[in-house]
Write a structure and sequence with these properties.
223 residues; alpha+beta; three-stranded mixed beta sheet; 4 helices; 11 strands; 16% helix
């Protein structure tokens, strides 16, 4: 009615009088200005933006520069950050015992780059090598070391374990043990027959000191 609460959208749009009072009512003409100048405005979109503003996401639908407030700005900042990818770097025990250079070819968005990774002696599974994004490759690459199983050696920390299966005649007659190490050397030891004719009892452990994996690049090594 004429004495009602007023137009709830009056604060958002300019108005002009089109004539005086007619029958107790005043005629208003609202000026709508769409982004393309056509005057098309999506009221439901305005209401949604107003609701977002009430929830703290946007202070106002009409902001300088055409920005829609905090949420849109936050998304824009996140989208400008370089993407990050993690790829496995499979290494043998020999690779990690001696230290080698491995090359990894990566393709991303039509751009190809070969990364050279210098392995340090003693690196363990889970070690990560990070290459930051650059002009020639727009993504951050992270390579994570994965140690492939060895044929006969098992690694525990810096120590290497080898299980040697012997026949009964070997345990009584004396044997020569030869163990190829991942560094390329071969450890050997002649074990003579004992007085009780039992050279190596079942389950016996022998420790070969300082023939394991390098500790923090060496020269110290595990057993």
């Amino acid at each position: 009615g004429a004495n009602g609460g007023g137009n709830p959208f009056q604060s958002f749009f300019s108005s002009s009088s089109s004539g005086g009072n007619t029958g107790g009512f005043r005629t208003e003409t609202f000026s709508f200005g769409g982004p393309d100048g056509s005057g098309n405005i999506d009221i439901s979109q305005i209401l949604r933006d107003m609701m977002m503003g009430a929830g703290g996401g946007s202070s106002s639908f009409f902001t300088p520069g055409g920005s829609t407030g905090g949420r849109g700005q936050k998304h824009s900042q996140q989208s400008t950050q370089p993407r990050s990818f993690t790829k496995p770097l499979v290494c043998t025990l020999e690779d990690l015992a001696t230290g080698r250079t491995k090359k990894m070819k990566v393709n991303f968005q039509g751009q190809e780059k070969i990364f050279e990774i210098a392995l340090k002696p003693g690196w363990k599974e889970g070690t990560k090598i990070t290459f930051a994004s650059s002009n020639d490759f727009p993504a951050t690459m992270v390579f994570e070391v994965q140690e492939s199983p060895h044929a006969y050696l098992t690694r525990q920390g810096n120590d290497l374990y080898y299980t040697c299966w012997l026949s009964e005649s070997q345990t009584k007659g004396g044997i020569k043990l030869k163990v190829p190490l991942p560094t390329g050397e071969v450890w050997s030891k002649q074990i003579p027959r004992g007085d009780d004719e039992t050279v190596v009892p079942h389950g016996k452990q022998m420790i070969i000191p300082s023939k394991g994996m390098p500790i923090k690049g060496g020269p110290a090594r595990g057993d």
